[in-house]
């Protein structure tokens, strides 16, 4: 059976890189060796593999990679830390949960 991996790297500049591959070990070696000098990770080494998910459907892996790439940093951190409560909370509307200046007491509960 062929596997596909979605993964998150923590780069030396404290940014996250999310990728997808069919060979995680080979891809990490490529990142470390500077295989692609135009890649995001090349100038941000060293990096650390923080999270990965193994899948059997490449379409699902691509969809999950795209989804995670659109997430905020704190939502990615919640995933990495397996903090499911915060992952759900950070999936809510930004105006309700993401804006620290929003007065939560003024929200209606229809």
Structure characterization notes:
This protein is an alpha+beta fold. It has one domain (4-99): GIY-YIG endonuclease (3-Layer(aba) Sandwich), CATH 3.40.1440. The chain has five helices and three strands; from the N terminus they run E-E-H-E-H-H-H-H. It has helices at residues 24-33, 58-69, 73-80, 84-89, 94-97; strands at 4-11, 16-21, 47-55. The chain has a three-stranded antiparallel sheet with strand order 2-1-3, with helices on both faces. The longest helix has 12 residues, at 58-69. The protein starts with a strand and ends in a 13-residue tail after the last helix.
Global outline: globular
Helix/strand/pairing category: alpha+beta
What's the helix count? 5
Radius of gyration from CA coordinates: 17 Å
Percent of residues in β-strands: 15-25%
What's the arrangement of strands in the largest beta sheet? 2-1-3
Q: What do the pLDDT scores average to?
A: 87
Quickly list its features.
single chain, 110 residues, alpha+beta, GIY-YIG endonuclease, 3-stranded antiparallel β-sheet, 21% strand, globular, disordered C terminus
Layout of helices and strands:
Elements lengths: L3 E8 L4 E6 L2 H10 L13 E9 L2 H12 L3 H8 L3 H6 L4 H4 L13
Antiparallel strand pairs: 1-2, 1-3
Short description:
This protein has 110 residues and is of the alpha+beta class.
């Amino acid at each position: 059976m062929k596997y596909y991996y979605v993964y998150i790297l923590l780069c030396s500049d404290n940014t996250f890189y999310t990728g997808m591959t069919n060979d995680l070990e080979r891809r990490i070696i490529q990142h470390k060796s500077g295989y692609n000098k135009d890649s995001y990770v090349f100038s941000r080494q060293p990096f650390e593999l923080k999270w990965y998910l193994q899948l059997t459907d490449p379409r699902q892996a691509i969809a999950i990679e795209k989804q995670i790439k659109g997430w905020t940093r704190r939502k990615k951190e919640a995933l990495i830390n397996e903090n499911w409560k915060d992952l759900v909370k950070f999936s809510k509307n930004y105006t309700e949960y993401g804006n620290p200046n929003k007065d939560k007491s003024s929200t209606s509960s229809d």
